[in-house]
Specification:
Keywords: CBS domain. This is CBS domain-containing protein. InterPro entries: CBS_dom, CBS_dom_sf, Diverse_CBS-Domain. Helix content is 41%, strand content 22%. By secondary structure, it is an alpha/beta fold. It has one domain: CBS-domain (Roll). It has a four-stranded mixed β-sheet. It has a three-stranded mixed β-sheet with strand order 2-3-4. α2 links the parallel β2 and β3.
Length: 138
């Protein structure tokens, strides 16, 4: 069975919890990504910051992206997947938490990210279709 390690994009870069949302947006632009894991000063994963978070929770509410931190947008414990978890677990986790991107961890170390596009490339169409249906519903 296909594992997260096999389909993930390796080498995910973090945005520090104390970095500004503006700096995070610049990093997303430089890397060409729509999400960044948020890491604390202890190098532990605190959450994931998405481009949508920036638009809805910062810009849409009239906040200054230079004045708020990535860590302020981290919501509770981050939803993750283990590097050796199989594709069915990836599908279950994305579906149950309604997320399109999952940080991949090996022990406590962040080793990559699995995005919906990675899943679509790696798995059979019916399974991907089912996941898309769940993620698209309210």
């Amino acid at each position: 069975m296909t594992t997260a390690r096999e389909i993930m994009t390796a080498g995910a870069e973090c945005v520090g919890a104390q970095e500004s949302v503006l700096d995070a947006a610049r990093k997303m632009t430089e890397l060409g990504v729509g999400a960044l894991p948020i890491c604390g000063t202890d190098n532990r994963l605190k959450g994931v910051l998405t481009d949508r978070d920036i638009v809805v929770k910062v810009l849409g509410k009239g906040k200054d992206p230079a004045g708020c931190t990535a860590g302020e947008l981290a919501q509770g414990e981050a939803v993750t997947i283990g590097a050796d978890d199989d594709a069915d677990e990836i599908l279950r986790t994305m579906s149950s938490h309604k997320v399109r991107r999952l940080p991949v961890i090996d022990g406590h170390d962040l080793v990559g990210m699995v995005a919906l596009a990675d899943v679509a490339r790696a798995l059979p169409d019916p399974k991907v279709g089912d996941l898309l249906e769940v993620l698209s519903s309210d």
